[in-house]
Amino acid sequence: MKKRSEQYYMSAVKLGPKGQIVIPKEVRDMFDLEPGDTLVLMADRKKGIAMQTVGALQPMVDKIFAGQGAEVLPEESEEARRVFAGAVQDSLQEDEK
């Protein structure tokens, strides 16, 4: 099942034998994703799994570290926001190695 509009795209993907998924071409085109690009995968047992580009997350991380985290994640505690921002930063640094 695929549903597409200019703003939205929905499709089912299957987990391969090595635990990998293929991001559909339409989504790669929508976000100008190229081989080698870094994506941040976020998982929360209650909220689910999300993936985002580094460029989209960096402003949020910067705000959290600047003490403006309540603006971007108002439902989370300050400690939870800092843990999130730290985890994003750690994953980006690991990728740069």
Please outline the major beta sheet: 2 strands, antiparallel
Strand/helix succession: EEHEEHHH
- Whole-angstrom Rg: 15 Å
SS content category:
alpha+beta
Q: List low-pLDDT spans.
A: none
Helix content: 40-55%
- Specify the overall morphology: globular
Task: Report strand order across the widest sheet.
Answer: 1-2
Mean pLDDT: 84
Number of helical elements: 4
Distance between the amino and carboxyl termini:
38 Å
Description:
The structure is a single chain. The protein has helices at 25-30, 54-65, 69-72, 78-96; strands at residues 2-4, 9-11, 39-44, 48-53. The longest helix is centred in the C-terminal third of the chain and has 19 residues, at 78-96. 6% of the residues are buried. The protein is globular. 42% of the residues lie in helices and 19% in strands. Helix 2 packs across helix 4. It has 4 helices and 4 strands; from the N terminus they run ββαββααα.
Which tags fit this structure?
single chain, 97 residues, alpha+beta, two-stranded antiparallel sheet, 19% strand
Give the topology, please:
Elements: E1 2-4, E2 9-11, H1 25-30, E3 39-44, E4 48-53, H2 54-65, H3 69-72, H4 78-96
Helix pairs in contact: 2-4
Task: Provide a quick synopsis of the model.
This protein is α+β, with helices and mostly antiparallel strands.
